[in-house]
Amino acid sequence: MSGQMSWWTRAALGVCAVIVVVRPATADPRAVIELFTSQGCSSCPPADKVLGELARDPSVIALSLPIDYWDYLGWKDTLADSRFTARQRAYSRARGDREVYTPQAVVNGSVHVIGSDREAIEGAIEETAQGGAAMSVPVRLSVDGQELNVSVAAANDQMPRRHGEVWVCSISRVVPISVGRGENSGRDLTYYNVVRGLLKLGDWTGAPVSWNVPLEKIAREGVDGTVVYVQDGSRDRPGAMLGAAFSELPLAGRASATARGPER
Question: What Pfam families does the record tag this protein with (predicted)?
Answer without folding.
Answer: DUF1223
